[in-house]
Write a structure and sequence with these properties.
Low-confidence stretches: 314-318
Strand content: 15-25%
Largest sheet: 8 strands, mixed
CATH topology of the largest domain: Transposase Inhibitor Protein From Tn5, Chain A, domain 1
Mean pLDDT: 85
CATH architecture of the largest domain: Alpha-Beta Complex
Number of domains: 2
Distance between the termini: 26 Å
Order of helices and strands: HHEHEEEEEEEHHHHH
Length: 318
């Protein structure tokens, strides 16, 4: 829906390198001090609601605001789906500042906590964090759905949980897959800031993210998104948007063919229209046009040339 060229400045590149170095240093210090209990000396409380967005998030935020202004009330939007790279509190803050709810993915080993439900100790602030989740032993009361397909069991859990890097509770959906033969387990952790969102819609909405990946794949493979050699902002903007626009056009053109031929693809569509063009050019050299039946047979044969999945008689499908 919107594409923008991103050119990272030297300041951003330096900041990224410094961030990686700082992470490595902190990790080494943590290993060196392993076993020492208590809070690190000199550390201070940080307000989770005071978030500073990095240049990447600021660019995305500006694009989101621009898109929302363009759409107005024509297409009411409620959620924004982001991949696991944006499964952070700053990204959530960015989306919420635009009036939307975020749907994203956390690390598979994210430190999530159940809300504390025990009694008040009688002094000090009330305890906020309860038991830390054990992904191999998730309480059954949070199980929403379980199914088995061949030897793979899929369990879906949903709960409101806490993360110490996020200011507010999160709507967590955990998808666990178990191989019943080998007993091997794997899981993914999805989350949303919308606490009312059901697990089915959350999973379905996040799955739509992969359609975006497919759109980029088609734009690169068929419509030149990887091939243009320009570097100027306007030219890059036009080339990238034209490639993605053609992806949308092709999806519309493929619909009538896929009603009867689900495997009909982009290469078949190209062959079909190329064949129509060849027939139209050849007919210009004939003194008279063939009979309609003969014309239909010619079009049918020529449009099959170069196709991968022959759709059969498609002359009336477009």
């Amino acid at each position: 829906m919107m594409v923008e060229q991103m050119v990272r400045s030297e300041v951003e590149k330096t900041a990224t390198r410094d961030k990686k170095t700082a992470k490595k240093t902190a990790k080494d210090k943590k290993k060196a001090k392993k076993g020492q209990p208590g809070r690190p000396k000199g550390s201070k409380n940080q307000h989770k609601t005071a978030v500073t967005l990095n240049p990447e998030l600021l660019r995305i935020q500006a694009m989101m605001q621009k898109l929302l202004q363009l759409l107005g009330t024509l297409i009411p939007l409620r959620h924004m789906v982001l991949d696991g790279h944006f499964g952070t509190h700053p990204a959530l803050h960015m989306v919420r500042s635009c009036g939307l709810q975020v749907i994203s993915k956390l690390r598979h080993d994210a430190a999530l906590y159940f809300p504390y439900e025990g009694p008040y100790a009688g002094r000090g602030p009330r305890r906020k964090y309860g038991t830390k989740i054990d992904y191999d032993n998730i309480p059954r009361r949070y199980l929403e759905q379980s199914s088995v397909e061949e030897t793979i069991q899929t369990d879906i859990y949903q709960a409101q949980m806490l993360h110490k890097e996020f200011a507010k509770p999160l709507n967590i959906v955990i998808i666990v897959k178990i191989d019943l033969k080998t007993k091997k387990r794997a899981h993914v952790v999805l989350f949303s800031s919308d606490l009312e969102l059901g697990y089915e819609q959350l999973i379905d909405d996040y799955s739509l993210r992969f359609q975006i990946e497919f759109n980029f794949r088609d734009a690169k493979q068929y419509w030149g998104l990887e091939d243009f050699m320009t570097i100027h902002s306007t030219a890059v903007h036009n080339a990238a948007n034209l490639s993605l626009f053609m992806v949308n056009v092709v999806h519309v053109l493929l619909r009538p063919f896929r009603r009867d031929h689900p495997d009909f693809g982009v290469l078949d569509l190209k062959a079909y229209f190329r064949g129509h063009k060849y027939v139209a050019e050849i007919l210009k050299f004939l003194p008279e046009n063939p009979e309609p039946i003969v014309m239909e047979q010619i079009v049918d044969q020529i449009t099959r040339l170069g196709s991968v999945h022959s759709p059969g008689p498609v002359a009336n499908s477009s």
